[in-house]
Write a structure and sequence with these properties.
By secondary structure, the protein is an alpha/beta fold. The chain contains eight helices and twelve strands. It has two domains: about 120 residues, Response regulator (Rossmann fold), CATH 3.40.50; about 100 residues, Winged helix-like DNA-binding domain superfamily/Winged helix DNA-binding domain (Arc Repressor Mutant, subunit A, Orthogonal Bundle). The chain is globular and about 50 Å long.
Length: about 220
């Protein structure tokens, strides 16, 4: 059964989200502060987490970082209206998606389903391993190794890398990446979202410097391996 950690200190929002998610037959564990959430993370296993940025004790960013030290399940951040920096910060720290308050509960449910679908969409496939320049990506097991060292990627990072590896030596446009990975219509700020995840991928692959060894940028178009 899908088990979701919901961290939100505003009771009305928390109860509303829990109600809608439970209607989808998800088990939801609500927390009203960061310390309570960290304790749940240490003692329970989750399928994904929904984290409010502004909490009374520690921020959702801190919780996101703590989760990413050990787990790769999807994280959705809840951000205040118009706080673009919160969105970029959350993505940089390993979040997979964000939604801006106030939001429609059904929109959040749709985002939750999309993230869970990405995690499970390959579970019924046979073993399928992609290899490019020392990178080995196991589609079935959802594991990635670089020069035999495992990389711990978020679901979004995994999906982007998989798409680029499937199109080896081809430039994949930012619009196509967004449509394929997020499953949503491309809009003006989508490219910034992709850039944050690409940067995070490069950091994990230690692909830094003036010239990138693995993920190349085709300026004004997209990316390729």
């Amino acid at each position: 059964m899908v088990k979701i950690l919901m961290v939100e200190d505003e009771q009305e929002i928390s109860e509303l989200v829990v109600f809608y998610l439970k209607n989808e037959n998800y088990e939801v564990i609500p927390c009203t502060n960061g310390q309570e959430a960290l304790e749940k993370i240490r003692t329970q296993e989750f399928s994904m987490a929904i984290l409010d940025v502004m909490l009374p004790d520690i921020s959702g960013f801190d919780i996101c970082q703590e989760i990413r030290k050990k787990y790769t399940y999807p994280i959705i951040m809840l951000t205040a209206k118009g706080e673009e920096i919160d969105k970029i910060t959350g993505l940089t720290l390993g979040a997979d998606d964000y939604i801006t308050k106030p939001f429609r509960p059904l929109e959040l449910v749709a985002r939750v389903k999309a993230q869970l679908r990405r995690v499970t969409q390959y579970s019924n496939l046979g073993r399928n391993v992609l290899t490019v320049k020392g990178i080995e990506l196991d589609v079935d097991k959802r594991k990635v190794f670089l020069n035999e060292q495992e990389l711990y990627l978020t679901p979004i990072e995994f999906s982007i890398l998989r798409l680029l590896m499937e199109r080896q030596d081809q430039v994949v446009s930012s619009e196509e990446i967004f449509k394929e990975v997020w499953g949503e219509k491309y809009y003006v700020n989508s490219n910034n979202t992709i850039m944050v995840h690409i940067r995070h991928l490069r950091e994990k692959m230690q692909d830094t410097g003036e010239k990138y060894k693995y993920i190349q940028t085709a300026w004004g178009i997209g990316y390729k391996i």
